[in-house]
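Predict the structure of Phosphoglycerate mutase.
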Amino acid sequence: MAKTTLYIARHGKTMFNTIGRAQGWSDTPLTAAGERGIQELGVGLKSFDLTFKEAFSSDSGRTLQTMEILLHELGQTEIPYTRDKRIREWCFGSLDGGYDAELFMGVLPRIFGTETEFRNLTYEEMATGIYEADTAGWAQPWEVLKNRILSGFTDIAQKIESQGGGNALVVCHGMTISTLVYLIAPEIPKQSLDNGSITVLTYDNGQFTVEIVGDMSYRARGAEVLDGKI
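Done. Here is the predicted structure for Phosphoglycerate mutase.
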């Protein structure tokens, strides 16, 4: 049986990413620069002769747009493709669409105390703070959030494993990927994931292993190919 490997891409840069707004379950399309970045990623993945058994994304428009570009550049538009709402981004509820700075440097510090630096908060604390601050009642408590993310990715891995293993291409969201990494390997330091970065997980005997987080080398390689440098 081949090894089961998930190549998890963060979607391309969107309008909200560009102007620093929290996107969550709201949505904006990729910008021209965002589309170019995902084109680079697809070309880069193809240049390493990577092929994928199946594709998976959240049901958000920005991940669908990203996957369409990737599969086109890979020349693999005919592989099975599943949309799964469990691997959506965190929902910020009434805070969706607000500026990142207000959420992470205003709202959360006010909840936990003015001296609190949001970067020092655990994912559980951040989820609790967002849940408490959300006046619409849409944000998910930590237990619901972590369970939906972990179950979504576990089902993807088990599906590929049941078919004899191989590579799966997954497109989702920055905080979703970071949360998944934390749940698997909490010792790995938190980091901000760039649009079009790749995080690689392997799955064997019911266990995930984090191989690499936020790899930008595929995009860099694709940019060189598109620019005619290699």
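The mean pLDDT is 95.
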